[in-house]
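From the pipeline queue, job 12 of 40. The input is one protein chain; the requested action is below.

Action: predict structure.
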Amino acid sequence: MKLFKSIFLFVALSASLVSCRVHLEPVEILTFKQQLEKLFPNAEISKMEAKDHFTRAYHIVLNQPLDHNNKEAGTFQQHIYLSHVDENMPTVLVTEGYNAYPKTYELSKILKGNQVQVEYRFYGKSRPNPIPWEYLKNDQAIEDYHFIVTKLRRLYDGKWISTGISKGGETVLIYKSKYPWDVEVAVPYVAPLIDTQEDPKTEAHINTIGTEECREKITEFQRNVLENRDGVIEEIKKYAEEKKLGFTEVPMEEALEYAVLELPFSFWQWGGNCESIPSKNATVNELFEYVNSIVGISFYSDQTYFDLLPSYYQHWTELGYYGFDTTPVKDLLQVVKKPTNKRFAPKNVDLTYNPDYIKNVRDFVENKGNKILYIYGEYDTWGACAPNPKPHVDALKMVLKEGSHTTRIKSFSKEDQQRMYDKLQSWLGYSVTIYPLED
């Protein structure tokens, strides 16, 4: 009887357990693209060719709010280029200052990690037509990056590093000041923090770097071009016809004078060679060719004027810019009497300047900006506006002797490169591998 009861209880219990069994859903295994689509459900995501050390690459077109504080304002399409290796590897966020063209950045080669390259709002393919200028503000752009990083951190759980060049590097510093913990390390290249609409530090820089002989040679060349203006303008006309360039927004005569005024800035910015400056006896073609090689007369063409309107809007309202020194050629100017970069900003738009915006960014990075590696060239004109981190800040500023705006980590000596690698290693930890750049 006891045996019968035991068998009965066993059968009853087994039946009960079977009837109460939990139904398990099959585990959903998503492809990498499907994971991206889950993170950005309303984005257009298309596959691209993976290059260098990357195994996958995608072009993401994301609908971003025009105003992150008011989603009812509408959206614009922001273009992102994501290059993938592994979810556990470091991820380099590239904050472009202007247009974005897919390429592998130096820091991505050093870390052999993932790369997220983001086009700045309202530039290149991310430009709405017409531009709603009131939303082209740095704080809105920073919210773009914060949203993207917050989403992608669910996928990429390794260390994050932000980087950018020139205006893109400036964006790195602004981003760091607004969201200090979004990334572990920041590496801005040749990034200015400009204190006023026409910062006089750039003029002072131009008048002191290099040799006095070289600076005099630049002035002599400027005067030589304007003394031969008719012939040089004929060369511009031929060049414009050949390249199909229009000069209706900035007429050729005005473009020539602005190019001459711009020449010292660009000469030092891009590492000009004093020996290559044409002599007093140069032909008008030689004069034009040199101006074109240093400044680029197409800089004043209708297409470039249109492309750079967002840049000049930002410089004139928040970022600041530089002015022109007319002293060496004032007596030869016929068109541009009071030169200003405001000439190239959009018309009939509120250009009220916020003098505190960049000063607040400078105050943060100089006093609290830890884990920032700054890269500069000594002769680069924008280096005059570089921040100087205080001694108590855990940052490293590297300045290449006689370097230009093209200065990169690879530009430095092996010893200096190693110093930078060691600093990156200390900040990122030894779970991250540093791959020294090859010659």
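Job complete. The chain is about 40% helix and 15% strand.
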